[in-house]
Amino acid sequence: MNDRRRISAEAVVIGGGIVGCASAYYLARRGVQVALLEKATIGGEASGRNGGGVRQQCRDRRERPFAIASVKLWEGLQAELGFDIEYVQGGNIRMAANDARMESLRREGAEELEDGLQVELWDRDELRRRAPYLGDVFIGAKYCATDGTANPILTTKAFGWAAQRLGATILTRTEAVSIGVEGARVASVTGRDQDGEIVVEAPWVINAAGPWSAALSRAIGVEIPVEPARSVIAITQRCAPLFREFISSHDLGVYARQAREGQVHVGGTNVPPHTFDQRAPADVLEHLARGAAQMIPALRGANFLRSWAGTLEMTPDKVPILGYVDRVKGYILATGFSGHGFCLGPIAGKLVSELVVDGAPSLSLHEVRFSRFG
Length: 374
Prior knowledge:
The chain contains 9 helices and 20 strands. The model has no long low-confidence stretch (mean pLDDT 96). The chain has helices at residues 18-29, 64-74, 77-81, 99-114, 124-130, 152-165, 213-218, 282-295, 341-357, and strands at 4-8, 11-14, 34-37, 53-54, 92-96, 120-123, 140-144, 148-149, 169-171, 175-182, 185-193, 196-201, 205-207, 227-236, 246-249, 254-258, 264-268, 304-314, 321-324, 331-335.
């Protein structure tokens, strides 16, 4: 058995989530020889365990331009990747159950319109007319027609498959254990698989390892303020077609989308911080069932067939970290997406490729720079 193997690349991506796979795809599309290391399977963590919302509205203003740009990529993604990712631009409804929430949506809507995102405010009557499947608890909503949904697992894998077709090397079951630095520049990533160690030598390293990104960075003296958090999702039995929008209520603490086959995916808007625990506690599932039934009365009595949990990567300000690390040349962070990263995956990958190939991104990364944390 060969304990230590070496391969060469021009860039190495750590992490096989949507950001890592999109980075590998866009790099390979630009002609970069890229290798990707994933400790388990492609899309096996948060990128394959999220609610599948492709959302621009209800975001921090600093990341809104990235969401708007990313949706433009999503609109052509199925044809580009050559795979049905179940993307539907069916809209997004954020509901309000009280006056305070409705006022918050009004303020947010005014800001979104100012930033070029088209949204609509609905009063109770308009909400009943446009979404009659919703419960009577809501007094109004904000709607974005260009938001949508997609299948998280299929999308992430489709990026990985497309990257491979373009020549990318995808190493699954290969955990990145260290980053090599020579003379203040990255030089390699060492991974470990069932056959021992493998060293990928490359002048560019993209850390898209989600909640595991902090430990890898810490080993080379770069402290990233990224902490893990748990997100739980449950899926119902097949139901008759009820809705095509992505819907959410922070007042009830739940969100939902209906998959093509009829199952309804239900998740919670509150996530316990500082944990890698991926159990789905009974009280959380009870909360999801109760909230889903209040939100969509037709789901009363529907059974949850299965549930799962994913580990998110949270920054202190809930905004991602994307861009160069000045102290270590060739080192790019693409992490800290704080539960908002599924929609942002395509644009994040494209911007990473621009940093490597062009030396500058097509969108300013000032608001998501690592140095904002001092």
